[in-house]
Design brief:
Blueprint: E1 6-7, E2 10-15, H1 24-34, E3 38-43, E4 45-50, E5 53-59, H2 62-73, E6 80-83, H3 89-99, E7 107-109, H4 124-134, E8 140-141, H5 145-152, H6 159-170, E9 177-179, E10 188-194, E11 200-206, H7 216-229, H8 234-250, E12 276-277
Parallel strand pairs: 2-3, 2-6, 6-7, 7-8
Antiparallel strand pairs: 1-12, 4-5, 9-10, 10-11
Helix pairs in contact: 1-7, 2-3, 3-4, 5-6, 7-8
């Protein structure tokens, strides 16, 4: 019988489904795997969608979500957790009540609140529950400019707006925030990371002219969780996560996959599954 001397760094993703493979739990699993971690998952909803949009959403019973999370935590305990869209207050309570028993696991939360069309996806009371329950639980939250505008209750269109909005959101109880600047009207896109000490770090990338960005937010939050699982600090994980997403978009710019907004190339430079020695 072979002796088991090693373990994989694992990341649990709690998110919705995307049958087209570009976003949601599929993008999360691809990202976590491409970065050398072991992916586990708990499904929160079953959207029927492709690269052109969402046709319907079928919810997963809350008790089933709870059982999925508990079953994974009982067996393959994660080094980090990524949470995607939570569309109801009841789902927020289900997730936070379950994870509250494991306060030492770093959580990366992608607060998906606004569709590409600009429509708000969740109700105000759900947003309030997210702020009250999920924000204190999360090590890093990753809102885009539209989501930051909702959370800060102000327009967020410029870099100056982002600085001000980030400070307002930080006071809502977040430990750290990566405010993504992908919607800035400029050829140079800037994101801001407000760290646990209140410092602000600025990151800029050249804008890539492509519509193959479906799932970029899911991918970024999963990449940050993966780097945390691999032992990086929150700041290091944020830096590496952004670079990974930039390269994944760059290497997928010239690919036709679907008739709408295409996916990233998650496997532009896949890493071997990492193993580390058991204590």
């Amino acid at each position: 019988m072979n002796t088991k001397n090693y373990q994989y760094p694992s990341v649990l993703t709690i998110a919705g489904f995307d049958g087209s493979g570009g976003a949601g739990i599929q993008a999360d699993i691809k990202t976590i795997s491409a970065l050398g971690c072991y992916a586990t998952s708990a499904l929160t909803a079953l959207p029927v969608q492709n690269t052109q949009g969402v046709r319907a959403v079928y919810p997963i019973p809350y008790r089933v979500v709870e059982e999925q999370i508990e079953t994974i935590l009982d067996d393959i305990f994660p080094n980090a957790i990524k949470i995607g869209m939570v569309h109801t207050g009841e789902l927020v309570y289900t997730i936070t009540d379950t994870l509250a028993r494991y306060p030492d696991v770093p959580v990366v939360f992608d607060p998906v609140m606004v569709a590409t069309s600009g429509d708000t996806l969740i109700e105000d009371k759900t947003i309030a529950t997210i702020v009250e329950r999920l924000f204190p639980l999360a090590a890093v939250i990753t809102p885009n400019m539209d989501e930051a505008a909702i959370l800060a209750e102000m327009p967020v269109r410029t870099l100056d707006n982002m600085h001000y909005a980030g400070e307002k959101i930080r006071k809502l109880g977040c430990r750290s925030i990566l405010l993504k600047g992908g919607h800035l009207d400029s050829q140079r896109l800037t994101s801001l990371y407000f760290d646990t000490q209140g410092n602000v770090h600025e990151f800029s990338f050249d804008k890539l002219e492509t519509n193959n960005t479906h799932g970029s937010g899911c991918t970024l939050s999963s990449a940050i969780a993966s780097y945390i699982a691999l032992g990086d600090s929150f700041l290091e994980a944020v830096v590496k996560g952004q670079e990974y997403v930039h390269q994944a978009i760059l290497h997928g710019c010239d690919v036709l996959a679907g008739k709408g907004n295409g996916p990233l190339n998650h496997f532009f430079n896949p890493q071997q599954l990492t193993k580390y020695g058991l204590a």
